[in-house]
TrEMBL record:
Annotated family: Belongs to the short-chain dehydrogenases/reductases (SDR) family.
Any single Pfam family the record assigns to this protein: adh_short
GO cellular component, one term: membrane
Protein keywords: Oxidoreductase
Protein name: SDR family oxidoreductase
Top-level taxon of the source organism: Bacteria
Organism of this sequence: Hymenobacter elongatus
Keyword Protein biosynthesis: no
Entries under InterPro entries matching the protein: NAD(P)-bd_dom_sf (IPR036291), Sc_DH/Rdtase_CS (IPR020904), SDR_fam (IPR002347)
GO molecular function, one term: oxidoreductase activity
Oxidoreductase as UniProt keyword: yes
Length: 263
């Protein structure tokens, strides 16, 4: 039996849940973090149904609140859990012109997508460095690679995650640490992201990738200690396009993806 523990935020559904499946399949203890206890309980039921006696810890909390990362870390410590793998998957988006979207929603988005990710990384990475072992998976997006009109704040948070992750990866190499950090940059994926972001009728949502396939590629990259995972051909095309096209062209292309599909 594996005696390692993985903590996954955004674990009740979508890519986060599928990542929890990957860890549970490999006999990790899984600490599932999300806002709603009932959704976490359903996720745990499904994992128990598939994997039997997997050890599951449920920690409902709201990462849009600035104090939550410290509280989450303290609760993990209180329970005597050592986190071997941290997955920062929690995040959400909002669609529309920046002048029309809700300010508090976007401030919460920055808190969840970027600030809490940095905060949790700081807390758990220090422990991993002391033990000289551990793995962190940061969930970015293909939106990390270009400006995205009509999802301006969301794309900016994911660009932040990419820049932050690549900088810390370099620091870990400089420190000659055995701790690894991987960034997963999914394409549009079959989750509830588009419903939450009010973008379910857009072109971007019309041919989503499988959440299970995306999670498996990200998990494999994490286990291999890879710097980056670009699951599916679509994600790779987005990345390589960002290397050769100017931002003005990329912004135009991204904007067309957030137009409503004609009925």
């Amino acid at each position: 039996m594996n005696d390692q523990t993985a903590l996954i935020t955004g674990a009740s559904r979508g890519i986060g849940f599928e990542l929890a499946r990957c860890f549970a399949r490999d006999d990790f203890r899984v600490v599932l973090v999300a806002r709603h206890l009932d959704e976490l309980q359903e996720a745990a039921r499904l994992l128990h149904q598939e994997f039997g006696g997997v050890d599951i810890v449920l920690l409902p909390c709201d990462l849009s609140r600035p104090e939550t990362p410290e509280q989450l870390y303290a609760e993990v410590d209180r329970r005597g859990l050592l986190i071997d793998a941290l997955v920062n998957d929690a995040g959400f988006g909002e669609t529309g012109y920046f002048t029309d979207t809700d300010m508090q929603t976007e401030l919460n988005m920055i808190q969840v997508n970027a600030t809490s990710l940095v905060h949790l990384t700081k807390l758990f990475l220090r422990d991993m460095l002391e033990r000289n072992t551990g793995q962190i998976l940061q969930v970015g997006s293909v939106a990390s690679f270009s400006p995205s009109p009509c999802q301006a704040v969301y794309a900016a948070t994911k660009a932040f995650v990419l820049s932050f992750t690549e900088a810390v990866q370099h620091e870990l190499r400089q420190q000659k640490s055995a701790v690894t950090m991987t960034i997963l940059c999914p394409p549009p994926t079959d989750t509830q992201f588009f419903q939450v972001a009010h973008a379910e009728n857009t072109r971007a949502a019309s041919h989503p990738a499988s959440a299970r396939a995306v999670a498996q590629e990200g998990y494999d990259a994490l286990m291999d200690g890879a710097a980056r995972s670009l699951p599916t051909l679509g994600a790779k095309v987005n990345f390589f396009s960002s290397l050769v096209l100017p931002d003005s062209v990329l912004a135009t292309l991204m904007n067309t993806q957030l137009h409503a599909v004609a009925k």
